[in-house]
Design goal:
single chain; 329 residues; disordered C terminus; 78% helix; globular; 15 helices; mainly alpha
């Protein structure tokens, strides 16, 4: 790979790291104005509309050829619309339902916790991914017996315990986080980590022959449909009408940045970088969250929590490498 292409791929991946790193801060900010159902439903509806618009526009071959000739880098975002069978539609709907639950858990975390701790605990999703692979994918069952998985999982869980129990109670009191709200947030973060891992394993096994951006478009659109139902049921229309108008374009902007653009840049980067480099780089995401959460909300980790956070990230990454070692063998 030319060095310029590799640099571009790294920049694209770092763009995703930055966007996904600050996304929890936006969710936390919006929690002051909207319920989890309203902001989730509206943001995903905006993202689905943008992705579907691109899906149909780039599906027109003359336009696609013209834009690819003028901007070669857009090739990573172009694809032939796949033929969807009834069986595949059923699987995609199932994926959408799983993601409705997962995204509700993700947003719910930041109604109870501040972004730093929530993101660090959620990082154990890599461990859950290996566990679900063990249960669902027969050819990956040897990975759970590897030293990398066992040591990495133990290291990460020690980190989680450190982050949870060696917190600063005075800081939580200052941030208006009660003991009950803290533990609800921790529970939601762990449930989200498990749900996110299950979602990724499921979508990987269902859409193996589909362009990543195409699969993301279908999954996000079906997720948006489910979240919009929850928005309507829980009175989200009234919330949208009665809150300050500027919040609506702000939510649309978060959909563009944190869902559409972040997915697009990570898919483009993955076409150029190998999986181990990508997964290691993505582990920087919680570090971005911790930094900006401290700057914006004053959500500063204690020294033991910082070391615990490093243990979580390193342990989760090491556990995820057990699958790559198995593939090489």
């Amino acid at each position: 790979m030319p060095s310029s292409s590799r640099r571009t791929a790294y920049l694209l991946l770092l763009n995703t790291v930055f966007l996904w790193g600050i996304a929890p801060l936006a969710v936390k900010f919006l929690s002051k104005y909207y319920s989890v159902w309203t902001q989730n439903g509206f943001r995903f509806a905006c993202a689905a509309a943008m992705l579907l618009a691109w899906h149909f526009v780039q599906g027109y071959r003359p336009f696609r050829n013209k834009i690819q000739n003028r901007f070669p880098w857009t090739q990573a975002f172009c694809y032939d619309p796949p033929q969807l069978t009834v069986s595949l539609w059923r699987k995609l709907i199932l994926i959408g339902l799983i993601n409705v639950i997962t995204q509700s858990l993700f947003a719910g975390i930041y109604y109870f916790l501040y972004p730093a701790i929530g993101m660090l605990i959620s990082s154990v999703n890599l461990i859950f991914a290996v566990l679900f692979s063990f249960v669902l994918l027969r050819d990956e069952r040897a990975s759970i017996r590897s030293f990398k998985f066992l040591f990495g999982s133990a290291f990460a869980m020690c980190g989680v315990i450190t982050v949870v129990f060696l917190r600063d109670p005075h800081l939580l009191e200052h941030l208006d986080v009660t003991e009950a709200r803290f533990w609800i947030g921790v529970t939601l973060a762990l449930l989200y980590a498990a749900g996110q891992a299950f979602y990724l394993i499921t979508i990987r096994s269902v859409v193996v022959n589909m362009h990543p951006l195409a699969s993301a478009t279908y999954a996000i659109s079906l997720t948006a449909a489910g979240l919009l139902v929850l928005l309507v049921i829980n009175g989200g229309i009234g919330e949208l009408l009665h809150q300050p108008f500027w919040l609506i374009p702000f939510m649309a902007l978060t959909a563009l940045l944190f869902i559409v653009l972040a997915h697009g840049t990570v898919f483009a980067a993955l076409r150029q970088l190998n999986a181990s480099v990508s997964s290691a780089t993505m582990q920087l995401t919680p570090a971005v969250t911790c930094l900006f959460s401290a700057l914006v909300y004053g959500d500063v980790l204690t020294i033991p929590q910082m070391f615990g956070g490093i243990a979580v990230l390193f342990g989760a990454w090491l556990a995820s490498q057990s699958q790559k070692t198995l593939i090489k063998k």
